[in-house]
Amino acid sequence: MQDFLIFNTLTDFVHPEAFHKDYHIHLLCKGGKMSFFCGHKLFEVTAGDFLIWQMTTEFTDISYSEDFDADLLMISNPFLGRHNPEMVWATKGYMYIKEHPVFRLDPDELEIIGTDFKQFFQRIRAPRTLFGEEIVGSLLAILLYDMWIIYSREIEKAEIEDITSRHFLRFLMSVQEHCREQREVAWYARELGLAPKYLSEISKSITGRPAGDWIDSYAAHELQKLLSDQRLTLTDIVDAMHFSSQPALTRYMKRVMNTTPGEFRQRTFQPK
After folding, report:
1. Per-residue pLDDT tens over the stretch 94-150
2. Banded pLDDT at 81 (limits 50, 70, 90)
3. What pLDDT score does 66 carry?
4. What DSSP assignment string belongs to 132-169?
């Protein structure tokens, strides 16, 4: 499976549901109409709408008009994990998009996202070159930053209105600050003045994932950054992440990332 794909519905004769189980889908509608149900709610997509289908969300009763014209950017979950530039806003976006997969863009926002998509078409469909993954990864980071800026006006409103979301985001901000030295749910619950069981219930209710998964995701993100710095030895990384030993680091990475420090560095630094 490729890490990223890009198509147009009319010129490439494809529709997004063919890719939903394997990719996070970003869709920019240029014309025509699409509709679907998410849960029991009907959503419609028309020109100027931006749609995100997350891999973990179920959609039913999908239909398209014959003239449905949209650009589709598909990103694999591992590629998104490697090139996600910021974890707190990624989670804010995840929470918002889960309930609001369709977002209406104003003319300025449409131009920004449209320009991002043009860059993806140019780079992904060009012959593969040296640093091809890094270039597409950088474009993905730009798209994510643009998305979060656009979504921020609605995301901030949702945070103010939902105390459960505020608790969860406080948890994520604490994880971002402390995940190098603290990786236990109970520690974060104490810091937030919450019961560990309640914190886990909040996490599952909002994201479908236990709180420990989010701690591991943030820690894995930090480990990827540290291991990608060739100036750092494994001893340096053990110290930075407050592991007791190199074997403890290896066991953690095997459990959370399904790889070892050596395997990760071999893949990262091998000639392309």
Report:
1. 878 888 899 999 999 999 999 999 999 999 998 888 888 899 999 999 999 999 999
2. confident
3. 95
4. HHHHHHHHHHHHHHHHHHHHHHHHHHHHHH-HHHHHHH
Do 91 and 112 lie in one domain? The reply is: yes
143-159 CB burial, b ≥16 within 10 A, e <16: bbeebbebbeeebeebb
User: Which of 99, 133, 160 is the last residue in one of the domains?
Assistant: 160
**Mean pLDDT on 204-213:** 86
Task: Show the domain range for 23.
Answer: 4-160
**Residues 8 and 46 both lie in one domain:** yes
CA distances from 41 to 11, 59, 100 (A): 30, 10, 10
According to DSSP, residue 2 is labeled -
- Report pLDDT for 136: 95
Tokens linked to 76: 């694999």
